[in-house]
Amino acid sequence: xxxxxxxxxxxxxxxxxxxxxxxxxVVLVARxxxxxxxxxxxxxxxxxxxxxxxxxxxVETPDELGELRPDDVLLLAVKTxxxxxxxxxxxxxxxxxxxxxxxxxPLLCAQNGVESTRIALRVFRRVYGVCVWLPATHLEPGTVxxxxxxxxxxxxxxxxxHGTDETARAVAADLExxxxxxxxxxxxxxxxYAKLLANLGNALEAVxxxxxxxxxxxxxxxxxxxxxxxxxxxxxxxxxxxxxxxVRGDKIAQLPLPGVPRGxxxxxxxxxxxxxxxETDYLNGEIAxxxxxxxxxxPLNELLQRLADRFAAERRPPGxxxxxxxxxxADEAVASVREQ
Length: 340
Description:
Keywords: NADP, Oxidoreductase, Pantothenate biosynthesis. Helix content is 45%, strand content 18%.
């Protein structure tokens, strides 16, 4: 199989680099300065076992590849807000032997949140969800770091909306030979909803800094509790924190990497790169949406959604809202709901 990594940033670059390092055929899809750096210098992947440069085909559009191969696997790793654009572009790509990518090829959604698979199923016939536990960073063009050890990450894979098949098992086998654990899960959505709850802290970290200290961790606990209440009201099952810890164990310890500063999560990275967009609408915004559908107030998640969107639009640096100010805004948001 050939892997086409649509969005070779932190997650896509780490997965693509590790697959290439174990001998698999990989194409990276990127744009702008990142694409130029990949073409000129290759992908520089820094991991605990060293720094590797992978000189791989790098493209912006499927036209540059000609007809896609029947054994191609498309792995979508763009932020969710860019999903529709990527699907329109790659879904119509012709495949050798007849048909289009949307008709013939599997699409794996290795993204935060839960909405991308639903968007993808409107276009692609064969969609797979991937629950991504993979601490990775992409801040500079052409470079990606992944600090996890002994495993680079754990990637649960399953058909969307449910089930498994031979493609999922074949991809999992390739990943497991490439420094990942890749359980094939018929109930992958349970894992993805659990990851959604964990990702509700991304916006908090992005606007107010690391989740350190009693006040920050207590606020995140309140944000996550809102999310859990919403999922329960919606009847959406999610893996417990205890089950997650049992699976992860000590398989992914984040180690310091020489010359690589310790950064934050995906939303923090978006603000650091001044990307102009952020995925919060599909994280905290997903909880706000479900809350409105099922009559559950979500003032804290709505607040974080608004703040993170504003930070991205104004290209404000991450962590520039003092935590005491955020705590005051959080208390005001909760109080305003109680008064209604």
